[in-house]
Fold this sequence. Notes:
Blueprint: H1 2-21, E1 31-35, E2 38-41, H2 42-54, H3 63-83, H4 91-109, H5 112-119, H6 123-148, H7 155-163, E3 172-173, E4 176-184, H8 190-208, H9 214-221, E5 232-236, H10 243-250, E6 261-262, E7 267-276, E8 279-287, H11 293-312, H12 317-324, E9 347-348, H13 354-359, E10 372-375, E11 381-392, E12 395-396, H14 399-429, E13 432-434
Antiparallel strand pairs: 1-2, 1-13, 3-12, 4-9, 4-11, 5-8, 6-7, 7-8, 10-11
Amino acid sequence: MIRKIIGLFILAGFVALSNQTNAQDKVVDQIVAVVGKNIILKSDIEGMFQQQQAQGITSEGDMKCEILENLLVEKLLLAEAELDTTIIVSDSQINQNLEQRIQYFISHLGSEKEVEAYFKKSIVELKADMQDVIKNQQMTQQMQAKILDKITVSPAEVRLHFKNLPETEIPQIDAQIEYAQVTVQPTISMEEEDRIKSTLRELKRRIEAGESSFGPLAIMYSEDASAKDGGVLDYAGRGSLDPAYAAAAFNLKGDKISNVVKSEFGYHIIQVIDRKGEQIKTRHIIMMPKVTPKAMDKAFNQIDSIADFIRKGTFKFEEAALRYSYDKNSRNNGGVVINPETGESKWKLTELDPDVSKVIPKMNINEISKPFLTMDDKQHQVYKVVKLLNKINAHPANLRDDYVDLSNLYMASKKEKKMDEWIREKQQGTYVRIDPTYVNCNFKYKGWIK
C-alpha cells in the first residue's frame, strides 16, 4: 500500500492537471468523497483509471475502488498535514518542483509545444494550474515522512524476522554482478580550450556592450537543454550546483556577467536572474570543448595498452585503476563501482549503465573486457575497460549474502504496518463521507464507511 501511495502522487498530479485542462473529455464533476475539508471528484477517479489503462496496469479487484481508496489515504494525510504547523512548503520548493514536473511532461510528450498542445494551455498557465496540486502533494509527502521517520531495524530484528519467515515467503533475489573499471578520458587540446574561452569572452563583451541580449545568444550558442529557454536554469542551492559554477554565481552582484567559468560539464558565462534566500535562479551559456579524432585514437591506444598490461600481469587491475583511471568515484576503491542506490558493490543487470550491460553478461569472472566508448556521469566521452569480479545467480534470499536486501524488505514491512496503524487510527477522528455509489467497494481499510 505504501508504494501505491507514493507512486500515486506524481500520477495524481498529472491526472488532476489533465482533468483541469481537457474540459471536453472531462466527466461531470460529481463529489465522490470528502475527507476533512478536501474533496475527491469523479473526474479524478475516471482520469486516473484511463491513465492506468493506457499504461497496461491491471487489477484483480475493482480498479476504480482501489483508486478511490488511494485518494482517500492521500486526502487523510493532507487533512492531518494542514493541522501540523511544522509542515511547511516554501515557494522555492514549489517552483523547483514545478520546473521538474514541466521537464517530466516534455520528456514524455516530446517538446514544450507538444505539452502545450496536449493540455491546451501555455507553460505559464500550466504552472499556475499545478501550484496547488504540487503544494498538496509535498505536504502529504512530508506528513508521511514524519509518520515513518523514527522507524528503524536492528540486525537482531532482521535475523529473527528471517528465521520466522515461512519458506514460501522467503524473497527471491535477482541475479547480480560486481565489477570494476578503468576509464580514460580523451585529452582536450589547449587550442580548443582557448577557442572556447575566447568565444565566451566575446559573447560576454557583446552583451555588456548592448550589442545583443543574453537570451538570444544562449539560444544560438549554448550547448545544453537550457538553450531553448535562453539559458535559464531554475532556482537551485549551492549543493545542487557544480562547485565552480556555484562559487561564481553566488558571488555575482546585480545583473553582472561572470568571467569564463570552468566546471566539470564545460565552460560557462553566468548571470543571476533572481535570488530567494539560499537559492538562485541563473542563466548561462555553456560550451563544451570538442575532442579531435587524434585525441580519441590516443585515448583508445592508452586504455588498450593498460588492459593488455593487466592481462599479462605487469600490474594488477587495482593498481591500474589508482594510477590511470579518470573516474574519481572508483579509482581509490580498486576500480570497484559502487551502486549509489544501495551503497554496495552489487548491481542488478537492469541497474547497469546501458553500455556496461551490453558487455558484462558475456564475460567470465576475472575477465577483462575490450575497451569500449561510453559517456561518464558528466556526459564526457570516455573509453572504459571493465573486469567482472563476481556473478551471483538468482536465488532464495539468505542472511549471509543478502542481509541488506532482507533489511530493506523488513524495514518496508515495518513502515507499511506503521502506516496501516496510522490510517486506521485517523479514520476514526476525521470526517469522511463517501457517495453511496461507492459504498459497496471492498476497501482494505473498513473505517471509511461510518
